[in-house]
Amino acid sequence: MNTYPILGTIRSPADVKALPEDALPALAEEVRAKLLETVSNNGGHLASNLGAVELTIALHRVFDSPRDQIVFDVGHQCYTHKLLTGRFAQFETLRRAGGLSGFCRPNESEHDVFYSGHSSTSVSAGLGLATAKKLEHDEHYVISVIGDGSFTGGMVYEALNNGGRSGTKHIIILNDNKMSISENVGAFAKYLAVIRSTPQYYTFKASTERTLSKIPFGTKIVHGLYDLKTQIKNKIYAQSNFFEDLGYRYMGPIDGHRIDILCDALQAAKSVNGPVLLHVITEKGKGYAPSESDPSSFHGVAKFDVSTGAGGEGDKSFSDFFGNLLCEMANRDARICAVTAAMGLPTRLGAFETAFPDRFFDVGIAEEHAVTFSAGLAKNGMLPVFAVYSTFLQRCYDQLVHDTALQNAHVVFAVDRAGFVGADGETHQGLMDVSFLSSIPNFKIFSPYDFTLLSLDLSNAINAESCPVAVRYPRGGAQTRKTEKLKRALLSHALYGDENAETVLVTYGRLAAEAVDAADALQAQGKAVLVLALNQIKPLPQAAIELLQNKKRVFFFEEGLRAGGIGEKTAAALLENGFRGTFRLIAVEDRFVPQGTVEEQLRQFGLDSKSMVDTIGKEM
């Protein structure tokens, strides 16, 4: 029996166009079934994709991809797009090594126009694409699909300010589901709530414009009515529609789960000779009851049981431990504040928000603002802790330099998902934070390998330091049974093995557990190795450099980029002090790392315990 009698026949958007209109609701049902089947097995972004099914079908029904270019903001709602653009047969490989990416990836398909994985970029990218088409006299369209949550990011407004008078065929689809990962915050969310209260007017307006555009001189009539309506409205109201003020033709809000209405509205948007913003109302998680009732929990999920919505209970993670620890510390010190950029739940700040609502600040998807806001809090005596994924901290480099380090503001950065992140792939790997943070003056960086060290590091960062401090930790839990073998010489580093050994294995963070395993395996072969596990990685502990100075062989294994990493800085420090031994650095070379499991990624780059044994054993 063919479980997907319609979806299974879709090889390209042309097949979507060829379907009879009455088959489209059934196609949407099959797409949702396929999303549930795949994401429940592979993990991924579920709620956002369930909410965008009909919208994506309508886009491929009306537009001609890839000549018309569709840019998905973040890209975590692009699964239906993948299914409708020739990737149905491969869809079971989603987020697996060598398989389909969980985000848009241009080298995967000509229909993926722009890499995506971070928020609030699609309007800028779409405007650039549309401007290039205009310069080349290409009459095809560019469509940016962006959620209302992404409108909490300032880059969107920079693009809107630039694009409203551009005269390009750029259509922005505002996919309004009233959420990002958590509920949206800020003035713009309230503004959209007002607009949603009068959808009948905008639906009627879109229908009228569509009808007029089909008759001779209808387009000119539409533009004339638009100008007249705007003048009258501006006389009556103190302010007009925000998007129209910027130069966009605003259409909507319309029902984002009615394919017929969506197609009509998109056709109407095509008739406008200039930039358009089409406001679409959707329900995040639509079609799957557990996701509809709790879309935040089903935004990004691990493997789960479709029949119940329940996932497996994993071990306590670094994120879990951090969230609980920060609550305990805030209970003792009223100056401690928690800051997040729309990631309160993933960074485990939910309990903090409940316990200390006045000291919890979700600034929306605005990481740059979060950093400078935190610096301001610090300057006036508070103790801000900004919890942020390593990959999203990349967005804040100037704020880290100018607004934090230059001011020597005492901001603590809880850098989550440091190192390999597994199935989220290139756009989310936390492999760059060490390189860019370690280049900034005044910063201190700690990289704990277990919960005890995380507790000590966070306490030290908040209570003992007076400068910017980053405490970085990986996705997942700690391998305590291995790392408890490490003997802490100082807070800055720990040792394991024969301290008289001429060979030293140096690492930090999660790799400390791999290093302990490697040392045990080498010892079983009769090869003595000393493990040096760094906890403080900037500044480098002088005691650690002195320990390495007279050793014969040093192997540095680093879960991060080689360029600008701690391994390179250690090598430079040793050379400056007259080191005469051999130094080997094993790290991630100059490249982006696609999806796979963390274990696969460690093995790929020679950073797991077996690879450590092989690398060191060959030279002993």
CATH superfamily of the largest domain: Thiamin diphosphate (ThDP)-binding fold, Pyr/PP domains
Tell me about the biggest sheet? 7 strands, mixed
Give the overall average pLDDT.
91
CATH topology of the largest domain: Rossmann fold
First CA to last CA: what distance? 60 Å
Overall shape: it is: globular
Q: Report the CATH architecture of the largest domain.
A: 3-Layer(aba) Sandwich
Quickly count the domains: 3
Number of helices: 26
What's the level 1 CATH class of the largest domain?
Alpha Beta
Structural class: alpha/beta
Radius of gyration: 27 Å
- Range of strand content: 15-25%
Query: Which residue ranges are poorly predicted, with pLDDT under 50 across at least 5 consecutive positions?
Result: 192-199, 232-239
| Number of strand elements | 20
Helix content: 40-55%
Strand order of the largest sheet: 9-8-10-11-13-12-18
Can you give a write-up of this model?
- There is one protein chain.
- With 620 residues, this protein is an alpha/beta fold.
- The chain has three domains: 7-198 and 273-301, Thiamin diphosphate (ThDP)-binding fold, Pyr/PP domains (Rossmann fold, 3-Layer(aba) Sandwich); 318-472, Thiamin diphosphate (ThDP)-binding fold, Pyr/PP domains (Rossmann fold); 490-617, Rossmann fold (3-Layer(aba) Sandwich).
- It contains 26 helices and 20 strands.
- The strands form four sheets. Strands 9-8-10-11-13-12-18 form a seven-stranded mixed beta sheet, sandwiched between helices. It has a six-stranded mixed beta sheet with strand order 14-15-17-16-19-20, with helices on both faces. Strands 2-3-4-6-5 form a five-stranded parallel beta sheet, with helices on both faces.
- Residues 192-199 and 232-239 have low confidence and may be disordered.
